[in-house]
Design goal:
With 125 residues, the chain is mostly helical. 78% of the residues lie in helices and 0% in strands. The protein is built from 4 helices and no strands.
């Protein structure tokens, strides 16, 4: 029974839940980036280079020895796009945090001790 309750406590912790949400969102984000690379970047930017190399598909690039380096290039491009988008997201989040932190705090009023000292001084007069 102890192991079951420990497992329940582990699953209920915020870190495990945050990780689960991150993995799910990461999987969905991977599909978006794959589509961006294969449907937007490759046709718009890489097709002229592929036509010059007489290759119809990026994955079809290979050396005369048969090494498929085109798939590797596609993976590198996907990684760079993912890294850049994550960089922009982190930069935006950090910018929002700086705005929250730089907001001026409400002016602090006199402390309880200061008020009591003022009352004492007024009573002495």
């Amino acid at each position: 029974m102890g192991m079951v309750s420990e497992f329940k406590d582990f699953i209920a912790k915020g870190n495990a839940m945050d990780l689960a949400v991150g993995v799910i969102i990461g999987g969905a984000f991977g599909a978006i980036v794959t589509s961006l690379v294969s449907d937007v970047i490759t046709p718009a930017i890489l097709n002229p280079a592929l036509k010059a190399a007489h290759v119809e598909d990026l994955a079809g690039l290979k050396t005369e020895g048969g090494i498929l380096y085109g798939k590797f290039l596609a993976a590198v491009i996907s990684f760079l796009v993912i890294a850049f988008v994550i960089f922009l997201m982190v930069k935006g989040i950090n910018g929002m945090k700086k705005k929250e932190a730089s907001a001026p705090a409400a002016p602090a009023g006199p402390t309880q001790e200061q008020l009591l000292a003022e009352i004492r001084d007024l009573l002495k007069k």
